[in-house]
Amino acid sequence: MSFFDKIFGGKEEKPEEKSFWNKIESEEDLQKAIENSSRHKIGIFKHSTSCFISKTVLRNFEKEIENTDEKVDLYFLDLLAHRPISNKIAEDLGVRHESPQFIVIENGKAISNASHQDISLSQIL
């Protein structure tokens, strides 16, 4: 991998999968996540795998998660692979699409959302 790929996130770079993420890869996965929000708050991180800013925000957010003792229910959506699901989230929850974006859902409703450097674990705690 070249120097520039390391800095700007070359396409060959395989992101390390973190165990705290639940992936959303289908409308059924999304529905299950929203159903879980009736028991406790959940968070959905919408990530563009081709965007350097999104990668940086994701890394910083994951560091926050790794440095907390709080148990949170987090979901991950790859926007490039699953754009129709992102559109469904925007439509169903009334939250304008942004990337990267973190949406907190409670009782089936979006109660908080942020994008870029405003994304923080404190939104869900």
Description:
The protein is an alpha/beta fold and 125 residues long. It has a single domain, classed as Glutaredoxin. It is 34% helix and 22% strand. Helix 3 links the parallel strand 2 and strand 3 (73-78).
Provide the domain count: 1
Measured on Cα atoms, how large is the radius of gyration? 14 Å
User: What sequence of helices (H) and strands (E) makes up the elements?
Assistant: HEHEHEHEE
The amount of beta strand, in percent, is: 15-25%
Pfam families: BrxC
Protein name: Bacillithiol system protein YtxJ
Fill in the keyword field for this structure.
125 residues; alpha/beta; Glutaredoxin; five-stranded mixed sheet; 4 helices; 34% helix; globular
List the helices and strands and how they pair.
Layout: H1 3-8, E1 21-23, H2 27-36, E2 42-47, H3 52-66, E3 73-78, H4 83-93, E4 101-106, E5 109-115
Parallel strand pairs: 1-3, 2-3
Antiparallel strand pairs: 2-4, 4-5
Short synopsis of the structure:
The chain has four helices and five strands, in the order αβαβαβαββ. The chain is α/β, with parallel strands linked by helices.
